[in-house]
Design brief:
Shape: flat
Strand content: 5-15%
Distance between the termini: 69 Å
Order of helices and strands: HHHEEHHEEH
Radius of gyration: 26 Å
Number of domains: 2
Number of helices: 6
């Protein structure tokens, strides 16, 4: 076998090792998430047991005749799935975006540094960038004056 063939074999073996490692990490993360979802579906005033949740999920959305399945499918599952979706979408949220500004304050770096002074400085900078009010442009050609509403009026 040529030198190029040995390099290709090594690259393929490395790719398979990396793929296996990723699959194990995803599998390891999926199990606690699934367990947390089942526990979340169990918790509530209806007092569903550990066996009620998998049975209700397996039976599918049914009529109100099966109370446990109705509770899981119509009340608890939508809320739980929404929480998972929001949590997944919110994973990069530690950055404070300042509206109508080109600048932003990266709180993630300040938090990871671990110094309270750095975080205080970042928060102070964000507060200085925060607008004092909302300007609503009524006329895009700017021939008429803009309507200014303060945040106390708009709830912002």
């Amino acid at each position: 076998m040529t030198m190029l063939g040995h390099q290709a074999d090594g690259a393929i073996a490395h790719y398979h090792a990396v793929s296996l490692r990723r699959a194990l990490i995803l599998g390891g993360a999926a199990f606690p998430l699934a367990a947390a979802l089942v526990v979340d579906l169990m918790i509530g005033p209806a007092g569903l047991g550990l066996g009620d949740v998998p049975r209700s999920l397996a039976s599918g959305p049914v009529t109100v005749a099966d109370t446990a399945a109705a509770i899981v499918w119509q009340i608890r599952l939508p809320t739980t799935l929404m929480a998972v979706a929001v949590g997944a979408a919110d994973r990069d949220r530690p950055v404070l975006y300042v509206p109508r500004q080109d600048d932003r304050v990266d709180l993630r770096a300040a938090i990871r540094e671990g110094s309270p002074g750095t975080l205080d400085t970042a928060l102070d900078r964000a507060m200085l960038l925060k607008p004092k009010g909302h300007d609503f442009v009524l006329d895009r050609d700017h021939t008429a004056p803009a309507l200014t509403r303060h945040m106390s009026v708009t709830g912002g």
